[in-house]
Task: inverse folding
């Protein structure tokens, strides 16, 4: 494991494996770099893979107050470590972060977005989550995110209270505020026209129709966007399915 110091002094921890052109993996809510580890393993024969813990997650630091701009600076610090330019793979809210970094002009050579939540949500959700975290109600924050952002049915949320990974979710509960900010504030359509980077937008066939439609529209709005829908897939990151898609796009 290695680390880089972001612009505001936050330590960002990462693993670097493989050889070839660099690619940085940016994962989403309730994820740390373990989420991207299988995909990293499948890509490292063709790429130098940087798989990192976003701030507040895993071994990385967390300097308050949070701002999306600071997360973009974290990604830019990793791009510098990679040599000044890199491909980026973004998953879920991490895809929104990668897209926002592209809007800001980060040196991203090619970008793959998997299941990017670009439909937008009520910004009041951020305030409600922040209040739960401030009150120390981490379990309630987990369930609020699962219900309001992920869209899980109430009975499923209740069942997950006793899941063996529940302590892990509660440990990361404060970062749901960060991911909700990213979900509630996707890039505006007029911002997308300035992205010259080739972008592959990917969704799973089993995701809801409105989600797929918003991603297809995103690809249309991007000057160099492409869209594909993967048969039999949903919001979960299935590395054996995604790795060939990522390789084909980035190496073409």
Result:
């Amino acid at each position: 494991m290695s680390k880089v110091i972001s612009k505001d002094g936050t330590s960002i921890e990462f693993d670097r494996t493989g050889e070839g052109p660099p690619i940085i993996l940016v994962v989403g809510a309730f994820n740390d770099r373990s989420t991207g580890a299988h995909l990293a393993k499948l890509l490292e024969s063709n790429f130098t893979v940087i798989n990192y813990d976003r701030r507040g997650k895993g071994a990385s630091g967390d300097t308050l107050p949070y701002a999306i701009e600071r997360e973009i600076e974290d990604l830019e610090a990793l791009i510098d470590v990679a040599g000044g330019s890199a491909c980026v793979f973004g998953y879920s809210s991490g895809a929104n972060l990668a897209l926002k970094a592209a809007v800001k002009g980060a040196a991203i050579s090619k970008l793959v977005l998997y299941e990017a939540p670009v439909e937008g949500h009520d910004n009041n959700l951020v305030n409600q989550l922040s209040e739960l975290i401030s009150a120390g109600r981490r379990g309630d924050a987990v369930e609020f995110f699962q219900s309001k952002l992920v869209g899980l049915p109430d009975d499923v949320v209740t069942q997950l209270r006793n899941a063996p990974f529940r302590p892990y979710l509660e440990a990361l509960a404060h970062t749901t505020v960060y991911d909700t900010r990213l979900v509630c504030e996707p890039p505006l359509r007029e911002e997308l026209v300035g992205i010259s980077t080739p972008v592959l937008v990917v969704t799973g066939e089993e995701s809801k129709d409105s989600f797929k439609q918003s991603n297809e529209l995103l690809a249309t709005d991007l000057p160099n966007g492409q869209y594909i829908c993967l048969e039999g897939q949903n919001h979960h990151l299935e590395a054996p399915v995604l790795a060939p898609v990522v390789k084909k796009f980035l190496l073409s």
Q: What stands out?
A: The chain has a mean pLDDT of 95. The domain at 2-119+187-251 is CATH 3.40.50.1820 (Rossmann fold). The CA atoms of residues 101 and 199 lie 13 Å apart.
